[in-house]
Amino acid sequence: MTSPRRLGAGLALLALLLGTAGCGIRATSVPVDAGAAPTRVSCDQPRTGASAKAPGMVVADVYLVCSQRVSPVRRMVPDRHQDRLGTARMLLAELQRKPDQAEERGGFASEVPGGLTVTAPFPGDPPETLRLNQDPDDLPSYAVGQLVCTVAGTVAGAADRSVVLGGPDKNMAPLRYRCDDGLRTRPEAGSTEGTKVS
């Protein structure tokens, strides 16, 4: 015959099992993929370091890609008082340079390809034209926005803060681009934002 103490302990154990059977998450044989953990980038502009006071260097806004838009970061560049083409080449090299650690932590990257080069206008081009060795239409997303926004307002751009870009085909007229919100935020803007040079 079962003792009252043993019977009570058995009933308590049964109650505990019944009480916990419906709690928690049911097991499933189907794998569940919730995707990668969401990442957040700040897109905060890194501070220019002490090198800002270095002789022969000046601060320039270089436009990089962060969170699906083109945004400026400040970099130290050589102050060489270059002409239009020299300035364009120097700024292009900055866009092709790998972002430093502070820029990477902020979420900045560049889509300007390493093999891109810039040359002087072809005969018949407007004097402010910058000819690339690739058609602007064929550049990666945001690359035209990066280039235009970086060059606009410098001696490499036009007087009205626009930038005139052409490709390697002399039979294809260059187009005028402006660093507007569309060029900064739409990945396909490089192939849609250019206008005929009047």
Topology:
Blueprint: H1 4-21, E1 57-65, E2 70-78, H2 84-96, H3 101-105, E3 118-119, E4 129-132, H4 143-151, E5 163-166, E6 175-177, H5 181-185, E7 195-196
Parallel strand pairs: 4-5
Antiparallel strand pairs: 1-2, 3-4, 5-6, 6-7
Keywords: Signal
Organism: Streptantibioticus ferralitis
Protein name: Lipoprotein
Largest sheet: 5 strands, mixed
Number of helices: 5
Report the β-strand fraction as a percent range. Answer: 15-25%
| Lateral arrangement of strands in the main beta sheet | 3-4-5-6-7
Q: What characteristic shape results from the CA principal axes?
A: globular
- Detail the poorly predicted runs: 16-25, 30-39
C-alpha termini separation: 107 Å
Q: How many domain modules?
A: 1
Round the mean pLDDT to the nearest integer and report it: 82
Q: Specify the structural class.
A: alpha+beta
Overall helicity:
25-40%
What's the Cα radius of gyration? 29 Å
Query: What is the N-to-C succession of helices and strands?
Result: HEEHHEEHEEHE
Number of strands: 7
